[in-house]
Amino acid sequence: MHYLLLYLKKVFTVDVRALALMRIGVGFVLLLDLGIRATDLEAHYANMGVLPLYVLFQNIWDPYFISLHTISGLWQVQAVLFLIAALFAFLLLIGYRTRLVTIISWFLLLSLQNRNLLIGQAGDDLLRMILFWAIFLPWGRFYSLDAQRANNPHPDKLHFGAASAAFVVQIMLVYVCTALLKNSPEWHTTGTALYYALSLDQVLMPGGKLIYPYSDLLQFLTLTTYHIELYLPFVLLIPVYTSFFRILVVGVLTGFHLGISITLFVGLFYLINLVSFLGLLPAPAMNWFDAKVLPYIQNLGYHLRRFSFKIPSPIQVRFNWPFSSAGKEGLIAIKEGLVISILLYVIWWNLADVPQINRSLPTNARWPGMLLRVDQHWGMFAPEVFKDDGWYILEGVTATNKRIDLNRNGQPETERKPESVVALFKNDRWRKYGENFLFVNNTFMRPYFCHYRLRIWNEAHHPEDRVQELRVIYMKERTLPNYQPVKPKREVLCICRP
């Protein structure tokens, strides 16, 4: 048992300064995510948009979900909740009342994501899980207003506990499980997965266009990707030269996600992963940061830090601890046991999902995961890459019988493929919505999207330019092997009228 504890300390100890950097990054990402989502307040979160509350409850709601964002279908109420979430995200970034703010930020993020599952992606799951494990981590001990107020000149720089182990294991699960879910030969045998991924014009970025013609390179990158995801995370469990191996893992995965960001349109997914890697940085990296970078940041923030001491605390919480030191240790043991239990549950959830084990999670065991939203599925391009690609045409017929494409700002309707399909999407939330729109199980989405686009077009245009009928058309292209050309097939998904 003694040697096991020494091993666990060796591989699961984290630098608290690295956690603090991750906290700052998470605060920034939360603000960025809220900013992007806020551009679609009515469309994605209000009853006048594409997913009214009654449609949410009838079709995709889980009885164990919790969401403040479902208290009203008014966009104005959603705007207030967004502002509250932004305030707490900023407080998290600067490290003010960090643990309390972390709990509130996690709850508000959970609430927001539950409001519209049709626009969610894997990055949302990871961001939610980072915040959840951070509730139990001391990531406000450095680079924060809390640290300034505590006036502790020598805080502990290293932390080991159930939550630090959970954080490291969570990062590992993201990559190992996505590799295990990719059980198609195109990932580990033929190496054609990246060819099919870059054939998807809905996610193709300029960097992807550059490498797409080179089949041998794509095969090499596919097999490399698969093996990096499957094996590299286990390097974190090597108990010797841990600092070196941490930097190696962070460096390789950082390059991996930067490569993804310039080849595939994945929204904030790559940025959330990069932020999560900050928490893995070892002590030597943080010593360099403190010596070389931190002095410049401190000089920039000097006046802000002085001002921060004058801010009266809006929440005064004082505990007269009624327990003895033994009682405190007992509560700490309860907390550690709780975190270990949830971690084991998360591992169970993930492993039950992979085909190699093929043991579905019992229905009566799923409710804790849905309640706390520790449910997760890392099926990025798994088990195989989608072969159905295409683009949308929103064919509107005006009173003068003109046929225009609302998806191209009212230009004459044409079936010609646009130069950039990605450019047709306002942001990745709309791209993900468009992806879910195609599934047969989601046909309930179609009339609400159609009527929403019809309404906002007519509200913004003069009577002669208003649309009398709108057809949501998908120009479907089935990707064939070896760059074979394919003729798009026109599919009418929905028709609506005012």
From TrEMBL:
Compartments (UniProt record): Endomembrane system
Residue ranges of the TM segments: 20-36, 73-96, 117-139, 159-181, 193-212, 232-253, 260-281, 330-351
InterPro entries in alphabetical order: HTTM-like (IPR011020), Sporulation_signal_mat (IPR052964)
Principal localisation: membrane
Keyword Transmembrane helix: yes
Domain HTTM-like: 11-285
Signal peptide interval: none
Topology of this chain in the membrane: Multi-pass membrane protein
Keywords on record: Membrane, Transmembrane, Transmembrane helix
Keyword Translocase appears in the UniProt entry: no
GO terms for cellular component: endomembrane system
PANTHER family registered for this protein in UniProt: HTTM DOMAIN-CONTAINING PROTEIN, SPORULATION-DELAYING PROTEIN SDPB
Protein name: HTTM-like domain-containing protein
